[in-house]
Amino acid sequence: MLNLYTRFISSFIFPLHERLKKHKTVQIKEQMNESQWWSQKEIEQLQISRLKKIIAYCSSNVPYYKELLQESELTEDDFNRISDLQKLPFLTKPRIRNNIEEIKSKKANGLARFNTGGSSGEPLIFYIANERVSHDVAAKWRATQWWDVDIGDKELVIWGSPIELGSQDYVRLIRDKLLRTKLLSAFEMSEDKIALFIKEIKAFNPKMLFGYPSSISLIAKYANKNNISLSQFGIKVVFVTSERLYDEQRDIISSVFGCPVANGYGGRDAGFIAHQCSEGGMHITAEDIIVEIVDAEGKVLPHGQSGEVVVTHLATKDFPFIRYKTGDVAILSDKQCSCGRGLPLIEEIQGRTTDFIVATDGTIMHGLALIYVLRDLQGMENFKITQENIHNTTVQLITNDLYDRINDQEIIKTFKIRLGQSVNIKIEHVDKLASEKSGKFRYVVSKVKLN
Fold first, then answer.
1. DSSP per residue over 356-402, as a string?
2. Which of 29, 143, 278, 306 is the most exposed place for a label (fewest CB within 10 A)?
3. Is the predicted pLDDT of residue 118 greater than 80, yes or no?
4. Cα 157 to the chain's mean position, in Å?
């Protein structure tokens, strides 16, 4: 049950805010609230209709796609099934960098420049227009309401993006105060900083938390270690996104805060791809986004098989993302969620392609194969594994007095079994682990390119 202030914000102030920004968020969200209950066939028909429209628009107004479609002798009439997307090549980060001006629509107005954090290489610069923003905000808003919370409920955001943290101007501060959103920087997660975060949580008394799973799980671990109870503050849900959510992170967050953890999946470039509902289903925002899963050769894989996530965002005509290779690895499901929504499901999000380790014999394994070796060792506080190249891997450890240094040799021995006996395993005991530029934290980073 929403209180009066939340109702006022969600039904009047935030809609007014979106109208002033020339966003159609409210209208789109209302449409999404209806279409989420459609059958999968009806949703697919909507996707095909919107796909035809974006192809038709691009063939006239986007130089890159106009040339591509003409060379391939393709028109919107050639796209009658989702599988017809395979007639088009993938859009990759290098291709965007090399054609950034040609990918802009000639009719685009008010394009805003964005970039990714560059956690897996060189940052990607791209552009977003109001249509895309409206659809992404609507999708996030709908997913928030799945958990019986709304815009206007107190929200504490633990985030690290330079864009968000660099735009705290006077207008935004007023907006955040009205919406009862408070932003804390996730760039530094020392114990002193975490203690301050806990004080903020107690003082602010939020209804929901939002942030990186690594950052919020560190807060939960600190609270658990110091016998600090955080379950009595009435937090209804913890939303996590932008990193892989590990089972142990979900468990410690849920236990310490006394509420469910809702996983979200997406990015600045690919958009709001999927969000978990209260029944556990990871629903794709299928009204806006078509997801394909492909293997290393680019072949589309059936549901149930693991591969790279390829996204077509249907609300990006001003700077199109059509068959965009995200660098993420996931599995699609052919099941239907018990919540009754017709939105298709992602069965499992396995992480970035750079979260996978390559052995000297060419075997590709998820970083969990190495994470499991470290995380349950007594005295282990935190760690980071970096595969510099096929022959060299660095393991940085933060340990306490309970850690026995004899474990270093056991780690080296076990890692060599998995990666190859010729691999040089370097153990470093450190006081602090570096985050990505965005403030995210990754347990495993491989600099070896997958074939």
1. EEE-TTS-EEETHHHHHHHHTSTTEEEEEEEEEETTEEEEEEEE-TT
2. 278
3. no
4. 15
pLDDT score of 327: 86
Q: What's the pLDDT at 251?
A: 96
Scored b (16 or more CB within 10 A) or e, 425-437 reads: bebeeeeebebbe
pLDDT at residue 203 is higher than 60: yes
Q: What pLDDT score does 440 carry?
A: 63
Altogether, the residues listed in the chain come to a count of: 451
- Tokens standing for 52? 């035809």
Q: Which residues of 367-382 are buried (b: 16+ CB within 10 A; e: fewer)?
A: bbbbbebbeebeebeb
pLDDT for residue 284 is more than 80? yes
- Run of H or E residues at 278: none
Q: Note the pLDDT of residue 29.
A: 98
Cα–Cα dist 315/50, whole Å: 9
Last residue of a domain, one of 353, 388, 411: 353
Q: Are 385 and 371 in contact (CB under 8 A)?
A: yes
Residues 95 and 21 in one domain: yes
pLDDT (average), residues 297-319: 96
Q: Return the DSSP state at 105.
A: -
The domain boundary, picked from 353, 388, 406, lies at: 353
- Give per-residue burial for 116-142: e unless 16+ CB within 10 Å, then b: bbebbeebbebbbbbbbbbbbbbbbbb
Question: How many other C-beta atoms lie within 10 A of the C-beta of residue 44?
Answer: 17
Shared domain for 296 and 403, answered yes or no, is: no
Q: Binning pLDDT at 50, 70 and 90, where does residue 162 land? A: very low
**Distance from C-alpha of 94 to C-alpha of 97, rounded to nearest angstrom:** 5
pTM: 0.82
3-state secondary structure of 26: helix
84 lies in the same domain as 139 = yes
As beta bridge partners, residue 348 has: 331
